[in-house]
Amino acid sequence: MKDIDILHQPPAEELELNRKLVQARSLSDSSWRVLRSQWSKFQQWAKASGDPMLPISPETLCDYMTHLAESGIKTAGLDSARWAIDQIHRFKELERPSNSEQVRLHLKGLKRLMLEQRPEQVRINRKQPITIDHIRRMHFQEGIIGIRDKALLLTGFATGMRRSELSALKKDDIQATEFGYRITIWKSKTNQEGLEEKVDLLKATRGKNLDWCPVKALEELLEAVPGDAVFQSMNGKGVSVRFSGKHLSGYSIACIVKKVSNSTDSDT
């Protein structure tokens, strides 16, 4: 939270600013990025169409939703735009336009028309999930990069942890158990208030799975990585590559998964 100089600011203004800062943290950073992007797009449309800015009437929101549908946006984009406009009104303590029955019916009708006339805007192309057979065919680099990437893939696969959860993982969050490791997740997409969640990472017990044991892979990484962050970015190249001490970002994890997933044996 931003520091406030209470010696040079009237108390009433200080309290109001504090309230706004605290209320803004009710949304995650990623949610704010979506909100800013969607609101910017609406402002451009409103300026071009001559519609008033705030508060937005239900009729204006309906017209904007129609404009988005005609521009080729998917149904998820319609929901995202409506949500962003509602959030702006909520923070301004204004009536949310989507509370109107007119808006709800309009959005429902748009989605039905899109399904009938533009089904490509409704379909969601979901990526196929990674399976253990897929992981067994992956090629990992030699050295500490391969150690990190293998532990990352296997830990994520075995626990179902999200990229943001893997990115934030610290050594203190991992406890050894009789069956492997117990991992504490302090913050996630569905847990923005720091409530403790735990997942178990279990040992492989037999057969060819032993070579792809997530506990063994994570243990090897923990022995190699310095500092507190578990999944770290790298500094240097070639023989001078080393752990940076900094957490991998969620985007970097996505890039690693994509790179390793594309390096599979097609013979198996």
Automatic annotation (TrEMBL):
This is Tyr recombinase domain-containing protein. Keywords: DNA recombination, DNA-binding. It comes from marine metagenome. GO terms for biological process: DNA integration; DNA recombination. InterPro entries: DNA_brk_join_enz, Integrase-like_cat_sf, Integrase_catalytic, Integrase_recombinase_N, Phage_Integrase-like_Recomb. The lineage of its organism: unclassified sequences, metagenomes, ecological metagenomes. One of its GO terms (molecular function) is DNA binding. Coiled coil: none annotated. Residues 117-268 form the Tyr recombinase domain. The keyword Secreted does not apply.
